[in-house]
Amino acid sequence: SHWGKLVSMEQTALGFITIADETMARAIRKVSLKRGYDVRNHTLVAFGGAGPQHACRIADKLGIREILISSWSGVFSAFGISSAPTFKHTSQSILKPLSQKYLDELLTQIGKIKRVEQLRADLDVQVIGSDSSISIPFVISSDTAFSLCEKLSNEYQIRYGLIPDITQLEIVTLNLFEEHADHSLTALQNALNQPR
């Protein structure tokens, strides 16, 4: 006895394509909604060797009416990876209120790193009790708790149409990046893991 009906190779291949389309559409929907974007108001840009073959079905699933396919779409990914800057990234979970007192403590820890001026930093910040954070640039040499609250408020208003209560913000994660990385971020990781 058979557990199911036999399907042709073409039906099997179409099944795999349908799964791939749904997976890509779900990922686009999830990332876009998390950032406050309605994908129906945007153009789908198809790239990669197989991107254009999936574009129409993905656009239909997402309600997108316009697709852009470049004649160079097959090499976009390869070109992007070959021209992207190399960097080393480290992150540290924080979960502390966004206050000048805590920011000063964090800056003291960061100050222990050699060549700190060569680092780029972001903070993931959220409203306390929320389950989604917003990444904002953190200028180590000049940002204050007030300037970070302003950045977060501006981005929050753009995404959600609301202004958050700045007394209810917490730093979720510190992200540090060093372009053309060497071993100095290892010292950073050690400094951040020191008892406070």
Low-confidence stretches: none
| Strand and helix order | HEHEHEHEEHEH
- Report the average pLDDT across residues: 86
What oligomeric assembly is this protein in? single chain
Count every beta strand, where a strand is a DSSP E run of 2 or more residues.
Answer: 6
The number of helical elements comes to 6
Helix content: 40-55%
> Strand count, sense and closure of the main sheet?
4 strands, antiparallel
Helix-strand blueprint:
Blueprint lengths: L8 H26 L8 E4 L4 H12 L3 E4 L3 H11 L3 E11 L2 H11 L8 E9 L6 E5 L6 H16 L8 E11 L4 H9 L4
Parallel strand pairs: 1-2
Antiparallel strand pairs: 3-6, 4-5, 4-6
Give structural notes:
This protein has 196 residues and is an alpha+beta fold. The protein has 6 helices and 6 strands; from the N terminus they run αβαβαβαββαβα. The longest helix has 26 residues, at 9-34.
Would you kindly provide a brief summary of this structure?
By secondary structure, the protein is of the alpha+beta class. The chain has helices spanning 9-34, 51-62, 73-83, 100-110, 145-160, 184-192; strands spanning 43-46, 66-69, 87-97, 119-127, 134-138, 169-179.
